[in-house]
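Table 4 source record.
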Amino acid sequence: MKPLEGVTIDDDWLSAKALQKLFDVLSADGGMAMVAGGAVRNALMGIPASDVDVCTTILPHEVVKRLEAEGYKAVPTGIEHGTVTAVIDDVAYEVTTLREDIETDGRHAVVKFGTDWEADAKRRDLTMNGLFCDRDGLIYDYVDGYQDIQTQNVRFIGDADTRIKEDALRILRFFRFFAWYGSGRPDAAGLKACNANKMLMSGLSVERVWMELKKMLAAPDPSRALLWMRTTGILGGVLPETVKWGIDAIPGLIRNEREYGWEPDYLLRLTAMMRPHEETADGLVKRMLLSNLERERLSSWASSQVPPLDIANEELAKRLYRGSQQGLVDAMRLEVVHLQNRDDEAGAETMAQMARFSEDWQKPVFPVKGQDLLDAGMNPGKALGESLAKLENIWVESGFELNKETLLTKLSAV
């Protein structure tokens, strides 16, 4: 095996003492280890790496034995599939023994462990994910991944149809990596294979599908990937809520993120492709098993009405207090895009200012509590709660100006 000539990486993560200690452990007695996948890809693209994964010729149980012999922690996170998490100096690295696929069913693979770096590279999904680097930063490329990284070409390793039949989730990974790292048009063979095999995704768990969609929607600009997913019918298959609404708002939302400094937000991008309808949002939440936080966010957005352009800040503040601040901000940001698409630039700018006001708004604290009414002579019960609510409404209508003493003087009137 020979490294690529004239190509090396020297990122800080490679020279980290913890990783070099791990190399020492795995390289003893004829063993070999290299960093694989995303960290290598990102280093070659000048992008920070979030995780550093290591491959080795050492069998999993021997990896555990060696780590523990040196006093390091070894966690058998996926040892049946060859993966052990090594914790050295409080830094965690996933260590996976080289593998070859023996049998696949579109979701799971039966593997055997080996020592063949090329075979391990060729069992992976995309060429840009199939590179290795040794402890000195030398690059080993068995799948022409380096060239694809240079041209930002997202391409399956070997036959695209075969790769997808091994695991149908690779269809979504193809578009996810295109969103993050691709340029121009998607690889023709890959796109064709994704379209031809899209029905296989029906066998995937919704959790795996949602995880890929979230990662894709979090890309700096997923609009081109979404366009090709929609063109092939793949987007409608995994997110039927988008079929009758479309993705026309996505480019404008991306543009506004940059112009107004909005943080890229996968959930806001998702809502941009959906009808603002509570039953629609609820159906997606249940079908995709979204988290409670995601459920609350979508529900709040779907139930929030966009305020009129001529609303005063004082009245907008009342809506923010009585409704969902996040839901209103989401609805207004999407309305900015819709106004722009209707060539109403003045309205869009006004709505953007309203969204900014709403985002910065701090919810005031109602100064009266139930105990205050008890101290004033009221008895516990339903009437007390009703009176408290009426006082709160008076306070809100005053523009949050009335203090506790003034409000309590109005108690007899409510």
